[in-house]
TrEMBL record:
<protein>
    <recommendedName>
        <fullName>DUF1015 domain-containing protein</fullName>
    </recommendedName>
</protein>
<dbReference type="InterPro" id="IPR008323">
    <property type="entry name" value="UCP033563"/>
</dbReference>
<dbReference type="Pfam" id="PF06245">
    <property type="entry name" value="DUF1015"/>
</dbReference>
């Protein structure tokens, strides 16, 4: 019979969290051995934090400040078929000096532009909310031909390389205060709200696939920042 969880609660976003503490040494060893047999674990979220933690640990090795716990960080493991990847969208504060009309004209150099939303979202197609209207952007073939690597072919990279950087002047989305990142779980309404309140344009992306994520990792690369929004998303601070 399964014992009751030590935590059982539902967060404000409707996600139920249940946590069991495994005290049996036999069960702990069984789980440890099962993980030891896994050929690889892939980082699905927190790529840049993980890389930073690894660099700090490496720099501390051989110094008086090094401690075994510097080699560890908290993680949770999911089977790839139990993860849902949602879109991770962008909203930008201004048009970098462009009028909406000029911005639309510039975009058409690299994308086919259509009025309205996508009925069936698909890779390399973007939805854009600008000046109270939705548009669909379809990536032109010359852009796709230059976007064949595991990272450059991601929709987040195509958007960054062809719109955010050259047209909107956002060179580093990790540090630029003009860009906001909005989880796809909030829907189109949140993008419209941001444009009506404090942004000039918003982009809705097709979700990154699990296959894309694994391909990037297998190539020894790191996913671009804010490229994946995962569900289920555990509550921060649940275990410290």
């Amino acid at each position: 019979k399964r014992s009751p969880p030590i935590y059982d609660f539902t967060t404000s976003d409707g996600i139920r969290h249940e946590l069991w503490q495994i005290e049996s040494a036999e069960k702990q060893n069984e789980i440890t051995n099962a993980f030891a047999k896994q050929p690889a674990l892939y980082i699905a979220d927190g790529h840049h934090r993980s890389a930073a933690a690894a660099k700090v640990a490496q720099n501390l090795r051989g110094t008086p400040d090094h401690h075994k716990y510097a080699e560890r960080f908290l993680a949770v493991s999911f089977s790839s078929d139990e993860l849902l990847i949602l879109d991770y969208n962008r909203a930008v504060k201004d048009l970098n000096g462009h009028t909406p009309e000029a911005f639309l004209e510039k975009i058409q150099d690299r994308f086919e532009l259509f009025s309205g939303q996508l009925e069936h979202p698909k890779p390399h197609h973007f939805e854009m909310y600008l000046a109270g209207s939705w548009y669909t952007l379809s990536t032109r073939n010359p852009v796709l031909k230059n976007s064949r690597g595991p990272i450059s072919s991601l929709d987040v990279s195509i958007l960054q390389t062809n719109i955010l950087s050259p047209l909107l002047g956002i060179e580093d989305p990790r540090t630029d205060k003009r860009i906001a990142f909005i989880g796809g779980i909030r829907g189109r309404a949140e993008l419209e709200k941001r444009v009506h309140e404090d942004c000039a344009v918003a982009f809705k992306l097709h979700p990154t696939s699990v296959e894309d994520l694994l391909n990037v990792a297998d190539a020894g690369e790191i996913m671009p920042p804010k490229s994946t929004w995962f569900e289920p998303n555990l509550r921060d601070g649940l275990i410290i």
